[in-house]
Specification:
The chain is an alpha/beta fold. About 45% of the residues lie in helices and about 15% in strands. It has one domain (about 1-140): Sugar-phosphate isomerase, RpiB/LacA/LacB (Ribose 5-phosphate Isomerase B, Chain: A, 3-Layer(aba) Sandwich), CATH 3.40.1400.10. It is built from 6 helices and 5 strands; from the N terminus they run E-H-E-H-E-H-E-H-E-H-H. It has a 5-stranded parallel β-sheet with strand order 2-1-3-5-4, sandwiched between helices. Helix 1 (about 10-25) crosses helix 5. It starts with a strand and ends in a 6-residue tail after the last helix. Bound molecules: D-ribose.
Length: about 140
Amino acid sequence: MKIAVGSDHAGVEFKKTVTDWLEKNGYEFNDMGPYNEDSVDYPDYARKVGKAVAEGEYDSGILLCGTGIGVSISANKIKGIRAAVACNPEFAILARQHNNANIICFAARFTDKATIEKSLHNWFTTEFEGGRHERRVNKIEPCC
Ligand code: RB5
């Protein structure tokens, strides 16, 4: 399983929590930047990660910004991407079970290490439920 990781400047600190967790748990990943806390624009990094996942180069993605909102809105502009903000570990389960999200986003300014680690655990150990959720997910398409 190959994971693409990215953030903006606000997410750099907790991105280390993410990459440490991925390393410890044996996941192959690519940190697509940024690599310091100089101010950057979150759509640039969300697009890098989103495109890499949409094109099948990576199995899923992890994005962080201050709220998780900017990176999720940006990544969701890419066809085939379902990026969900996980505010807590339960959201991480439901984002996979019900929405089959392929990118999980974290709110770096409103979270903590334990929440991120538990959310990652849940994200990687939960399966898409399919059934009625598959019908709904199939209806998520650009429409106008
Ligand atoms: C950066 O200051 C902040 O706007 C960004 O990290 C994010 O929260 C945007 O949604």
